[in-house]
Design brief:
This protein has 702 residues and is an alpha+beta fold. 36% of the residues lie in helices and 22% in strands. The longest helix is centred in the N-terminal third of the chain and has 34 residues, at 155-188.
């Protein structure tokens, strides 16, 4: 009998078909007899999730309406159904499976692929079929044929399905119960919104909220340093004394102690140069590629995953949903064999440093389900490369250049540390001189990249002329997250957790979400309007704030809960845990939420920002009318006495710099702000200045 091959989606099925001689049919392809399939085979496909969990009302009519007294939603048995609009394709798969004795799971080689396959298989009602697993990292013809020759049994795959199914049901339970609970309680407070709660998305939103609170609570403070500009025989250089004082007086006293005036003579008393090496970067996992692409081109994590999936299906890169940054000797062998062709492809010829594998890149022990993202054996023609969309070309070249860097030399530079003595007060300078670019040649710096000033040639005991001054600086708040940094934050969120054990667990499971799901989680919280992304900067919305103020102090706000759950889910995937035990724990957690959240929300009080147009944060007394309060409105700040004639207002953005509520408070109460960094002039140059309020208008003070 002909085996039935089930792919996850049509494009994947098409890639498999290219490895055989096939005939297209309605909803499937027929494979002609072949040495691998002597009787031939059928290739069919899902359309993502063909099968999904039923809605709550399918279990009990009372769960069809959102009412607090109808909670909890905890079915005794979980039921699945064919997704709307997908019945025709499901019917084709069902018919094919029922007429064969062997079914091959050829969905994506990860937990989600296992879940998609088995949810379809069990929904067909088939029993007693032999199930095999295709496990490949590339869609190239030779890799596909090799994979079908070396099919695995389904034992590990079945465990991954049990893990994925438990995760799917737990997410459904937390979402269905948590969303209704918080939405209904907040509606009682007058907030007419639906608040989606998620096992992973909710703690992610809360971490973004915490960063924004840190920024808002930050009070800039001045500090004072002593800087010297020294004129040596062959050029100028800068040095700093070892002081960072809170009061200017402290810096003045230090200068007075050493009897140093503005102009002073110095001498170079120490000159130490050390050669340093930086090895080539590690190969890319999905998250490192998402971070780099966001930094270089401002691509969102979701866009990177989508583009990489396309390149994978074009057979140009290996499987993208990987958390590995290493490869095995097999992959290294073909990369080394084709390195010159890869070089010619992008015009990056350089002398090969070595074709011997290095443990830094090649380590089978660090490769589990998938290896790092690398170029495939397929070398695209110049025409095909030019035919790629700009984002495809950028990401393909990033992967290719990172792989080529393995064969390049280290980047070498000389670090020079200089100590300049001015009347007994040492000034310290560190300079860097490139010796050999090595692998850095493969990654040209961006045009706007700052070049470090190089040191002039200096001699030991060389006398120099100094220009000494006290420099005032301001402490700066934490920076808001970029969209690319959200991925890193989710991976390393253990450092935000107080409990040492939870921190270790989060480190072990690599934080919130998985390599394959993090970009989707970010898209979900954007879709729910908890965050916005503007020019790559992530901001919490009013709706997001309300959610976070409501869940504060609850386990839903902490990555710790997810840490403990993910640890047990992994045990299910390893055959050491039980889905029943896990889902029983989720049920207890939901009952605990229902018992504790109403009182907890009462204790938290009414959220600071209500989701109504009239509810605005009062920032300060209006400096003009002295009656109304300055409040934040959409796109500007203004006085609550506007209707009675007060025209005092402030822009939300001034010279391309967003003004915070704290800065507006300074203007209203003190008449000026501390130094604000990052204004942009008409000619595009950035500068720093204080804002001053004079006769109701903003002026700048330098």
């Amino acid at each position: 009998m002909k085996p039935v091959i089930v792919a996850e989606k049509p494009s994947q099925a098409k890639a498999y078909a290219e490895a055989f001689k096939t005939t297209k049919r309605e909803g499937y392809m027929e494979v002609a007899p072949d040495p691998i399939f002597p009787e031939g085979a059928y290739i069919t496909w899902g359309i993502g999730h063909l099968v999904e969990l039923k809605e709550p009302k399918a279990y009990d009519p009372k769960w069809g309406k959102w009412k607090l007294d109808a909670l909890p939603i905890l079915p005794e048995q979980y039921q699945f159904q064919v997704a709307r609009g997908k019945a025709q394709q499901f019917g084709i798969i069902k018919k094919l499976i029922h007429q064969t004795d062997t079914v091959i799971n050829a969905c994506d080689v990860d937990r989600e692929g296992s879940n998609i396959f088995y949810s379809i298989y069990y929904q067909t009602g088939a029993k007693g079929k032999k199930i095999q697993r295709l496990w490949i990292n590339s869609l190239e013809v030779d890799e596909v044929r090799k994979g079908f020759k070396e099919l695995r049994d389904n034992r590990q795959d079945l465990l991954l399905y049990q893990e994925a199914k438990a995760r799917q049901i737990s997410d459904w339970l937390v979402g269905m119960n948590g969303s209704r609970l918080y939405s209904l309680l907040l509606q009682e407070k007058g907030i007419r919104e639906v608040f989606a709660i998620g096992r992973v998305q909710t703690p992610t939103v809360f971490l973004i909220y915490q960063r924004e609170k840190e920024i808002e609570a930050f009070v800039p403070e001045p500090f004072y340093e002593i800087e010297g500009v020294f004129q040596a025989e062959k050029g100028k250089y800068k040095g700093k004394a070892k002081i960072k004082a809170k009061e200017r007086k402290e810096a003045e006293e230090l200068l007075a102690k050493h009897e140093i005036l503005k102009k002073a003579d110095g001498v170079v008393v120490q000159l130490k140069t050390t050669e340093k090496r930086v090895p080539p970067p590690l190969l890319h996992s999905l998250s490192t590629l998402q971070a780099v692409a966001n930094r270089k081109w401002k691509y969102s994590p979701a866009k990177v995953l989508s583009v990489m999936q396309g390149l994978y299906e074009k057979k140009l890169v290996s499987y993208p949903r990987t958390d590995a940054q290493h490869i095995t000797p097999g992959e290294f062998s073909y990369l080394a064999g084709q390195v010159e062709k890869y070089q010619q492809l992008i015009g990056a010829e350089f002398p090969i440093a070595s074709k011997a594998p290095k443990k830094r890149f090649v380590d089978s022990a660090k490769v589990q389900e998938h290896y790092a993202i690398i170029p495939t054996k397929t070398i695209p023609t110049a025409r095909k490369l030019e035919g790629l969309a700009p984002d495809e070309r950028n990401l393909y070249e990033e992967v290719l250049r990172t792989a080529l860097a393995m064969f390049h030399r280290d980047y070498r530079y000389a670090e020079t540390k200089v100590t300049t003595d001015v009347q007994g007060l040492p000034f310290f300078t560190t300079g860097k001189t490139d010796l050999e670019q090595g692998w850095k040649e493969l990654f040209p710096p961006a045009k706007e990249a700052k070049q470090e000033p190089s040191l002039p040639e200096l001699r030991d005991r060389e006398p120099v002329k100094g220009d000494i001054a006290i420099k005032e600086g301001m402490t700066t708040p934490p920076k808001p997250y970029t969209e690319g940094q959200l991925i890193a934050m989710m991976k390393t969120c253990g450092k935000f957790v107080d409990d040492v054990e939870d921190t270790e667990i989060l480190k072990e499971i690599e934080g919130l979400g998985t390599e394959a799901t993090r970009s989707g989680i970010i898209e979900t919280i954007k879709r729910h309007e908890y965050i916005t992304v503007n020019k790559n900067i992530v901001s919490i919305t009013n709706k997001g704030r309300i959610l976070c103020q409501a869940i504060e102090g609850n386990l839903l706000s902490s990555p710790s809960m997810t840490a403990k759950w993910e640890t047990y889910l992994k045990k299910i995937g390893q055959g050491e845990g039980s889905s029943e035990v896990f889902l029983d724990t989720i049920g207890k957690f939901i009952r605990k939420l229902l018992d504790e959240v109403p009182a907890q929300m009462q204790k938290n009080g009414l959220p600071e920002q209500m989701a109504t147009p009239d509810a605005k944060d009062e920032i300060a007394l209006c400096p003009r009318c002295k009656k109304g309060m300055i409040v934040s409105r959409k796109g500007f700040y203004s006085c609550t006495e506007y209707a009675n004639g007060c025209k005092q207002s402030f822009p939300a953005t001034f010279l391309k710099k967003r003004l915070t509520a704290k800065q507006i408070e300074y203007l209203c109460t003190k008449g000026k702000t501390p130094v604000i960094k990052g204004f942009v002039s008409k000619n595009g140059k950035k500068f720093n200045a204080k804002l001053v309020l004079e006769e109701g208008k903003l002026k700048m003070e330098f």
